[in-house]
Amino acid sequence: MVLWGLLLGVLLAAVIGYLCLPGLFRQRKPQEPPLDKGPVPWLGHAMTFRKNMFEFLKGMWAKHGDVFTVQLGGEYFTFVMDPLSFGPILKDAQRKLDFVEYAKELVLKVFGYQSVHGDHQMIHSASTKYLMGVGLEDLNKAMLDSLSLVMLGLNGCSPDASCWCEDGLFHFCYNTVFKAGYLSLFGHTEDKEQDLLQAEQLFVEFSKFDLLFPRFVYSLLGPREWLEVGRLQRFFHNVLSVKDNLKKDGLSNWLYHMLQFLREKEVAPAMQDKFNFMMLWASQGNTGPTSFWALLFLLKHPEAMQAVKKEATKVVGKTRLEARRSFSCDLSILKCTPVLDSVMEESLRLRASPTLLRVVQGDYSLKMANGQEYQLRHGDKVALFPYLSVHMDPDIHPEPTAFKYDRFLNPDGSRKVDFYKGGKKIHHYNMPWGSGVSICPGRFFALSEMKIFILLMVSYFDLELVDPDTLVPPVNPWRWGFGTTQPTHDVRFRYRLRPAE
């Protein structure tokens, strides 16, 4: 017994030593960025970083300047905070910064999907073909029909639909946009009532997974939470199985094209099920929360709401629903809404906080805009956090924490694209979708989803906060770095369908 205890002790010491050695002995070399290994061997700054990424990076930036390397859980991340220096990283002319392999590891861990050769390019190709142009027009029509079904029910507008209803604004937006988006992409059956019930069940389970998602990525779940994640994964793999979804009507060409590619690659059906789960999260994980922030900002800023309503009336016309009718709208108007476009861009600037990561392949020379060069090591990660370094930069965006619905409009009403930092025009002035090889391939459909939803809400409904003086809730600090942020708590609001005239 004593011998076994001694052996286990030696083994534990060896494992700890192996994990900690890189953190204990790594030193900054000439021309490398400032190195901050943190207070705990191997872990480094991991706990502080994961607790509140935004505040941690703000402190590191003030301490070390525009470039610094920090240790996070045995890995080294070099953060570049000067947006004028983003170009070489995003374009990567040296071809030494990899995103694809890192993404493969992440989706395997989170969704259980084992990537196959060429699928990253396939996703971008399918998205270009079916989430833009004519393909996007078809999906927009499906989204409008799905929103009618979700918001008005099976038989369209009912005679008593003009009664006030109360809900949490975050729950309402996330629930509505998620279900409509799911039905638009994954299709429907002849039984619309069952489709709605399934979509609601999916949202309930998706919300549970989404709540655990940030800590799941960081491997910070408790034992019961790990079991719950496993249950949720199995649930989605079953409900989104290809054998069932391929039988549905209205399955989007986007999803069908990607599944056809996997079948041609002889990917097992069980792995295709996991791919479907990954695509559901990728397509619906951010649109509902973004719609919440946009509507909340409009409700808190009457002048912005008035401007959007005025534009909606101009492009949609006066709207009243008759009994037993669904929403109707000429979706070509989505190209003629500069005010709403600015509102969406401003909402994303304020609340979208993606982290852009690249893995260094071979020693890499990073040249900054000021001429300074830094050497980065093979295997380290280069990271950009544009929310802090771009979206909140007062030089680029004066009063960066304020919601200004016309921030992205020129005086003549056209889209504003000229922004400056230090007197120099900046290309990357707003980066809610990422950039370069990691840019969101579904961004055009995602934006259309949200715009259709917002247009319907301001055109067909009366909206008001239950408490007009309620404050905009702060961001849940766990959500920094994971796409669109979410609030620490919901906000109550009332809505009613405007009665037919």
From TrEMBL:
Heme binds at C440. Pfam families: p450. It comes from the Eukaryota. SUPFAM superfamilies: Cytochrome P450. It is a single-pass membrane protein. It is found in: Endoplasmic reticulum membrane. GO terms for biological process: lipid metabolic process. GO terms for cellular component: endoplasmic reticulum membrane. Signal peptide: none annotated. Substrate binds at K109, N286, K381. Keywords: Endoplasmic reticulum, Heme, Iron, Lipid biosynthesis, Lipid metabolism, Membrane, Metal-binding, Transmembrane, Transmembrane helix. Its cofactor is heme. One of its GO terms (molecular function) is heme binding. Belongs to the cytochrome P450 family. This is 5-beta-cholestane-3-alpha,7-alpha-diol 12-alpha-hydroxylase. The lineage of its organism: Eukaryota, Metazoa, Chordata, Craniata, Vertebrata.
